[in-house]
Please model this.
Amino acid sequence: MSTIFYSFFTNFFAVEPDLLTQLKQDKVTLQSTRDRLSSEAQAAYAASYHTEAWTKTQRLQETERNLGLLERAIDDLLEMMRPGTEHAGKRRTRDACLAIGKARLNNLADTIASTTTSKVQERIKFIPPRFVETEGKSGGTVSVTLRASKLP
Model:
């Protein structure tokens, strides 16, 4: 198991109340920003300042997205704070490691797609990441296997 993630989740329960307080404060700040931007956008539309209204609307949408992400983070934190959830630390660590592995493979696939031809891309097969415990801080590995292919 990745010692970094296991360490994070085992030490997490010591700092969670401070984190929850910070997240709630951030939520209040974002709600205030959302209300202000909403009023400013409405006023700009009413005054026919279309460019300013469009800019305020984009900022409002970004604030709404951030608020949604923050509320999800609060929900996840409260779920982890429930009694008995400290036993799920290994599962959460495994899930986090697999998510990071998948993101890395997606990044690699995007890089290959942007720098190669479609013929080369057709020959590459990505296999979903697997969770394999490692010792120490060495982390995981990516294996590239070359195989013979039939010529057209």
Q: What stands out?
A: Residues 3-122 form one domain. Confidence is low (pLDDT under 50) at residues 1-13.
